[in-house]
Structure formats: C-alpha cells, structure tokens
Fold each of these.
Amino acid sequence: MTATDGTTTRTATAHERVEVTLTVNGTPRTAFVAPRRLLSDFLRHDLELTGTHVGCEHGVCGACTVLLDGAPIRSCLAFAISVDGRELTTIEGLAADDGTLHPVQQAFRDHHGLQCGFCTPGFVMSACGFLAENPDPDEDEIREGMAGNLCRCTGYAGILDAVKQAAGDISDRATHPCEQHRVDADVANGNDREG
Amino acid sequence: MKPSAFAYHAPHSLEAALDTLAELGEDGKVLAGGQSLVPLLNMRLAAPAALVDLARIDGLDAIEVTDRDVRVDARVTHERLRTHAAATEAIPLLRQALDWVAHPVIRNRGTALGSIAHADPAGELPAVLALLGGHVELASAQERRTATADDYLVGPLESDTRPGELATAVVFPRPAPNTGSAFDELARRHGDYALAGVGVTVTLDDDRKVRRADAAFIGVGATPIQVPLTDALAGQPGDALAPDDAIDLARSTIDPEDDIHATARYRRHLAGVLLGRALQTAAARAVAGGTA
Ligand SMILES: Cc1cc2nc3c(=O)[nH]c(=O)nc-3n(C[C@H](O)[C@H](O)[C@H](O)COP(=O)(O)OP(=O)(O)OC[C@H]3O[C@@H](n4cnc5c(N)ncnc54)[C@H](O)[C@@H]3O)c2cc1C
Ligand code: FES
Ligand code: FES
C-alpha cells in the first residue's frame, strides 16, 4: 500500500521499492526506493543532485543539510520514504538560471567562506534556514547558528563574516530569505527512474 | 555506512500504530525524529527488522499547558517546545534546558519525548523529567501505564519501553510558586553532548530564604543523578546564596567515570563549578519573582 494522504497506514517490506515523490526546488521528482534509502542518497543517487554532500553520515558534520518545508534538516538522518510528499530546497535551487548567485552564496564568495568547498553546500543551506528564522542576528547568534556545521579548511572566520554580510544583504532588500530560494529553478535535468 | 534493510510502517493513527507494534513485538522499533536512531542504524549499531514511523500519525502532536503541568505529545520536536510561549512561561526550565540540546538543525527534527526514550546519560530532558518529578505516559494495544523518571530511565541508552509499547506523552509538573531554575553545562562545542551539566530548582519562602533546592546532573553517571540540596542550603538568603556546602555534597554524591572526552576527576570538579553557578542563577531568578 503506498497511499500518502495521511489517512492510510503506509507499509513496505524490507526490499520492496516504493514510489517516493518530493518537490525538489519547485519540481516534483519521483524515484522508486527501498525504505532504508536515506534522503541524502535519494538526492545524490536517485535524483542525481550531487550538490548535497555527505561527510559523516551520522549527523555531526552538517554537509548534508537541506531545507525541508523551509526548515534546515540533516538529510543523512531522514529516510526518503518518511518525507514522501514534502518540499525540499537543496543547494541546486539557490542560484538563478543565469548563474546569478543567491545572496548567501555571493557572501561566501566575497568573504572566502570556502576553500575546498566540501562543507559549503551544508553551510549555505544552514545559513539560509538560520537567516529565515533570525534575519537580524548578532555575532554570537551567528556563531551558535552555524555551530552545527564543520569545516576543516577555512578556520570559520570567513564563513561567519559571510553570514553577517548575507544577513545585511537580505534585510536590505527587505525580502524574506526563504523567498529568495528559487522555487521555480529548473533542476529537472536528472533522470527520473520511473517504473 | 548505510542502514541494513528494514520493513517500514507509517501508521496513520495511534490505534494503528499500537496494533502494528503489537504484531511486530520484539522486531519493531519506533522511529520518531530519527536524530539518535538513524545514526545508530547508519553505523549498524542497531538493525531492527521493522521501523514504525510516527511521521504520518494524525495527532500525537499537542502541547497542553494546565495549572498543574505541561504535557508534551510524542511528535513534538525540541524546537517547537523550546519556542512554545505558554509552555516555557509555565516552566522556564524547559527553555533553559532545550537551549543546550544539540544544534537548531537537529532540534528541528528530534523530539522531546524521543530524547527521554533514548535515555542518553548526557541528555538534558531526562534530567528535567527527573528534577521536576514528571512522568512518561506509555501505551500498548493491551494497556496504558505511566512511569516516573526513576522507573523509566533504567541505564545508559536504556529506557523501560517494552516490546509493543509506544511512549505517547511526557508530563512535566509546574514548579512550586517562588521557584527559580537554571540549567548549565559544558561541551567542547555548543550543541554537542555535555561533558557534564546540571539542572537546578531553588524554592524560596516568604522571607526570600531557601525552602527547598534540588539538582539533577547529566554526563556524570548512567542516568540523571539527582541530588537533594535542601539540607545543604535551607535558610540561606536567595540574594546571597553561598553554594559551597551544596557543591561539596554534590561532589561526594556523584561518581563519574573516565572516558575519551574527560577524566572522572575533571568531571567531578566541573560538576561542582556548574552547580555553584546554576544555584546562584536560579536563586536570583526566584528573588526576581514569579515562578521558575
Ligand atoms: C549531532 C547531534 C548532537 C546532539 N546533541 C544532543 C544534545 O546535546 N543533547 C540531547 O539531549 N540530545 C542530543 N542529540 C540527540 C537529539 O536530542 C535526539 O533528537 C533525541 O535524542 C532523540 O529524539 P528523536 O525524536 O530524534 O528519536 P529517534 O532518534 O527517532 O529515536 C531514539 C530512540 O528512542 C526511541 N523512541 C523515540 N520516540 C519514542 C516513543 N515515542 N516511544 C517509544 N520509543 C521511542 C526509538 O525507538 C529509539 O530507540 C544530538 C543528536 C545529534 C545528531
Ligand atoms: S553527512 Fe549528514 S551530518 Fe554529516
Ligand atoms: S572549505 Fe573545505 S571543509 Fe570547509
């Protein structure tokens, strides 16, 4: 049984592949996966959206952070089947089609908030979620807001400066940072493995 | 690593969940926010045959505040409780403790009751449950029962949740009038599990002298360690509390162990320092008025 309307019990046997559909960056995306499929692997392997990175796979590093219905979560700590039917924003959904960076991305670039870039998608998504909750943070709040993500390269100073700038940019434009997530972005170029 | 294969059940109602759990018996494991269970599955430290996901249950997500207590259903996340105005006004200790629980991103999915069911010895909410004298409500297809912190928190990562059972809610009693509270801890990074921590409540009498004081420590034993401090502090003025006797008492009561993060000696010292700070903060809050 694969009903997802919340009125029917949903079950799947251990090796059964069941249909899971998520709205990813504004586009409905479907794949058939076993219950043990992590959301991070659903994005990377099934939808071929490899912008979401996987570091520790136990919730500590934050590299896999995505927005679920606008709120940041660890995609390595959720099963795709558990969030079937919901909306996700990933790093691929931020920049405009013409390549114009989202204010948070631009700020990371301006302040050298990255070196190797491995941690960056997670930091950017955490920052987007954090600024949506707290558009005008002080420095302590920024530190606390970013404390759940690890970076082995930068020493963090550039990242904290970037979040500070992004907060300013976003409030200057008087736009809620969530509204700057491009829900209409065209990311439907991966192969849906239907059927 | 990846989790081993499991059958998946996402019941739509509490009754359906209890029926599924009864059928599965020992094979079934409850999945709430997944913030403790999924790491264990990914590392293959746990490999249950079936998961019963609470995500699609209609209901089981209320926070109820009454004159007596705050009742929190199984699906309520840390972050929802932490930012719930009525609940944290009734029991400020909830907010004071939840501020220390993990990172915001983890709090968005992890549930308050899940952290009690998970029973990590460094978890903040099990200590709050013990300190306030609260209880957990449990249900199975056959019966309903309640369990106090002492009965429910059995050991490290071990709660008395029986096969076929679901913890449906946790009830935190409101503190007595003229009570102040505080939670303090030390972790290497804010949001990590604490090396040691303590929650305290201090109740003053009409002359603003200590009538009652209690502490519950985390990270220094198998479960939250409760230390009644009334004998050490009774009669002291709330606005000039001298915590030395209470610190000595606590240091001689707790029995921490060495691990890779810190030595037992350091933990015992740290627990005393944190207790002193927390008691003074709580007493000052009690003087400043209101409850907790
Ligand atoms: C990086 C990181 C840092 C963290 N830091 C902290 C911290 O500082 N302090 C802290 O307290 N926690 C911390 N946590 C853990 C977090 O609080 C979890 O949310 C919590 O421990 C478990 O709640 P959950 O809803 O995610 O439960 P799950 O992970 O879904 O379940 C945990 C266990 O409880 C059982 N369970 C859950 N709900 C029920 C129920 N209703 N009935 C019966 N059994 C149930 C499950 O079967 C499982 O055994 C951290 C987690 C991570 C990943
Ligand atoms: S990969 Fe998810 S937190 Fe590290
Ligand atoms: S830029 Fe290399 S890990 Fe952060």
Amino acid sequence: MDEFAKALNDPDETERIYAAQDIAETKNPNMSIHLIDRLQIEGSQAVRDAIVFSLNNLSCSGNYEKIFDLFSSSDPYLRNSTIDIFGSEGNEAIFFLESHMDHADGEVRKLILDALFATGVPGALPAIRKGLRDPSVNVKITAVEYLGRLEDRESVEIMLEIFSNETEAMLRTAILEMLCQIECRKTDAEDFVSILAPYGDFSLMDPLYLPHMIRLSSKTGDAESLCSIVNTIADINIYAEDIVYAIEQADRIYEEFIKEDCVLEIMGKIMQATENDELRLLCEELMD
Amino acid sequence: MANITAEEFDTLSDFIYKKTGIRFESRKLYFISKRIGKRIDELGVETVAEYIRMLRFADPVNQEFQKLTDLLTINETYFFRDFPQLQAFAEHCLSEVEKKKNAVKDNTIRIWSAGCSTGEEPYTIAIILLEMLNYFSTWKIEIIANDIDLTVLSKAKQAVYGKRSLRDVPQEYLDRYFIKKDSESYVLQKKVKKMVQFEHVNLSEKKEIRKKRGFDFIFCRNLLIYFDDISRKRLVDQFYVALNEGGYVFLGSSESPGRISTAFKLKRAGGYIVYYK
Ligand SMILES: C[S@@+](CC[C@H](N)C(=O)[O-])C[C@H]1O[C@@H](n2cnc3c(N)ncnc32)[C@H](O)[C@@H]1O
C-alpha cells in the first residue's frame, strides 16, 4: 500500500497517473486519504483528473472534512470535482453535507446543495429543502431549481410562503419555473395568482411573470385565469407563442379546455394578429 | 410500443453522455427510437423516464446499459469515415507535426489506430500520409493498429474491400491506391498495406495498453462505447501518456475526449475542434 502512496508522489507524471488508477482498483477506502493529499498539491491536470476519477470510485467516508475544505479552494476545477466526489458517495455523504449547511460562506453553501443534488438519492431531498431557508438569495434559487428538477411537490407550500414574502425577481421567477416543472394543482396556481393579482385585479400583475403565469394557468387547466391574464396584455403578439404553446399543452390533458369560449376567442385574436405561419397553423389544428 | 418523443430522447442522450462522454444526436432519433421502444417494451417498463431511472438505480453492473449501447451502435467501418475530422488531421495537425519534426531533424511519425476493425481506418491514415507528406520517402512511419477480434484482423491483413467499405473513397484515390479484383471488390496496393502493422490486443487490459508510448497521433474512433467506465477512463488516460508532447488524439465524431478527461488541451483546426497534449 505504501508503494502506491509513494508512486503517487513520484516525479514522473505517468507514474502518478498509473498510481491513481491502481489505487482505484484496490477499492480500499483507506487509500483515499493519499489521493486527497496529493490532489491538493498536484500541478498536472492529467494527474488531477486521474485522481478525481479514482476518488469517485472509492469510498471516502473517513475523509469528508478534508474533501470539504476543497470547496473553499480558489480553483474552480477543484470545487467542481468536490461536488462530484461527494456526489459519488451517495447516501453516505448526506448527513455530513447537511450538517455543514450553516457554513459562513454562501458560495460554499451553494456548492453543498450542488453536491446533495449530485448524490442522486432520495435522502438528499429534505436537506435540499433546507436551502429554501438560507439567508442568501443565490442559495435559495439553487434550492428551488433542484427541487423543481426532483419534482418535489412537498415544497410547494414553502415556495408559496417565500413567493409572498420575497421581492427578488430572480427568486420569484425560479419558483414559478419550478411550479411549471412539477405536477401542479389548480389550487396551487390559484394561490400564486392571488398574490400577483390581489382582489382578482389582473391589471396589477407584473408583466415579468406573465409567461410563467400563462404556462401555469394552462397547465392546471384554469381557463378562466388564463383568459384574465391574457386580457391584460396590450400587444398579444409579444406573448403569442407562449400562449399557443401553453394552450397546446393544456389541450393534451384537458379535453374541454380548448372549447372554452374565452380560449377560442384568444386563439382567434392570435390568428389575426400573428405573422408567424407556423403558429397560425398550430392554432388551426388545435381548433379543429 | 412505447413511443419516444424528442424530449425523452434528449434526456436519454444526456444520460448516456454524462456516463460515457458519447453523444447520440437527436437527428439519429428516427433510426434508433424504434429499437429503444422495443427494448422498453421487452422489459415491461411504462415510460422512458422509468427506463432511465432503472438504468440509474437498478443496474449496478451496467448490464442494461450495455444492452442499450449495443442497440445504439452500428458496428461498421469504412474508408474516409468522418471526413471533416480526417480533413482537420490532414490539413492542419499533420502539417504542423511535420514542420515541428523537420525543425528538430526527427524523421519518425508514429500513429496508433485503436480498435481498427477490418483495417479501413489505419489504411485511410496511410493514404493520407502518402498524399500529404513532403519528401515521403525520407520519413520513417509506423502505424500500429489493434483490435481484440481475430476475424477482423485477418480480414484487415488481406486488405480486400467491397463497395460498402469504399463508398467514400474519392475516385482518384481509388485509382491510385487500389487494384480492381472483380466487379465487387478491390485490393489495396502493397505500398499502403505495408505501412500498417496489425496487432491482436485487448484494449481493456491494463498491462497491454501501458506498453504503448511515443505516438504523434492516436485514433480511437467508435470503440469506447463498448467499454465500461473504468476501462474507458484508463484507456483515454493512456492516450495522454502515450502521446508525444503536441500529439493529437481523435475519437469518434460523437465521442468527446473533454468529457472523459480534462487532461487534453483543445483548439480549432479549420472548422474542427481537436484535442492534443
Ligand atoms: C465499430 S468498430 C470501429 C472501427 C473504426 N475505428 C471506425 O471508427 O470505423 C469497433 C471495433 O472495436 C473493437 N473492440 C471492441 N472492444 C475491444 C477491446 N476491448 N479491445 C480491442 N478492440 C476492441 C471491435 O472488435 C471492433 O472491431
């Protein structure tokens, strides 16, 4: 074993690459410490690459603290590799990562979320949800995006709460995007509508959120909201594609959606206004 | 049969890319979606998403993944396959290496064709060298070609080719480097044949590949898909070790060296991205 550790520090680059490969083959978790030590000082990208691959194939559970320090490295390659290394640990690493979510540096907290997501195990979900309570907007956005990709219905309620309390547009858009990705109910969409258009006054809706709200109301089969949203739009051409594609999506799920008077009316308006032949054709097909 | 949408195909293609560095483009969707659909049906899986979940979490020894990649690969080879890549090699990389070698009075060029099958690839390279190098007879050229399959190697040594193999050979090269045998086939001329040395090698064997050193160019096209993660990485790392400083590695058009190893540098050669040491 010492032989491998020695070879890993050989002056010859090739010997170091081979040592990293051979260590991975041993499947011996005790060897990972040598790889981590070398990784921190290694100058050759080829060797670093071989070491990281090796660490991804070895269990590193005894050395999480040391690996974690690489999150604070100024080298983006090392930071990204650390995500993969933790990711390859799967369930093993969840508890450790979660226990560091109070780290002082927001960048590191974001990397922890990346690593949690990279583990690809269901056990990471509760930890990622905690990211929604993070003081940093960036970390919150990251958590929202990952929860969307994991189609996490359970976090809809917290999302609604954040959406009503926060004003940061990027975060709010990320939440709406997330809702568009997951299995969303009509009542969920209505809750968001009531925040953006209080007292049912759709003219209060910030145009920034229109594309998402068009998608969301269609996705949940809420023709009434869709029509109210569209009616606030002065130039329908700007959103014509968003609207038609959203209606097409809804049509696949809800048979009656397309037959609603106000939906037909919208389609008619778009067919008249648009110069996009493909879009007009799609409208015709939908109305057939 | 399970119908695969373009979106589902992209998800599957992303999954394969992350795992292997090999990209199946959606323009090939038409050809392979039927095959994938059939496989999904055989397994009794409902959706493509479920199939991917199964590949990810319920396929510990990559048995299903191997089946899938078998479906996606077309085991064939032909002269001048992937013309744009060969053009980058011929017009940019080769002349650059030639100049460098001239400057230091080194007259050797060593090339490795890994997974050469019936020989079309290494022979194509030989033809390109004959065409492109100045003062050809002053060069000491070695083209080492290896494969695990003895049958294909014996065919490679015979060097008799039919129309399918020759479909992309420009007429003037056909006239210059081949002799018509009969209405169906051509024999490669001796001067090309003798430029290539064939070897029987299993490229997933560590001992074997570690012997390989000192190449100016390595071609390993459409082979890595047959390898598991560890052997694939080991072979590509070995390409790095085996290349001379400034040497080039060429993988298949859908395979990305950058995804498999960050050791190589990359640059544009004409309109083409090439990887080098
Ligand atoms: C599709 S052919 C590629 C031929 C050529 N390189 C091309 O791109 O046209 C793949 C070849 O890889 C060979 N092969 C597969 N596994 C191998 C291994 N472990 N060692 C050596 N060759 C292998 C197969 O026998 C086959 O001839």
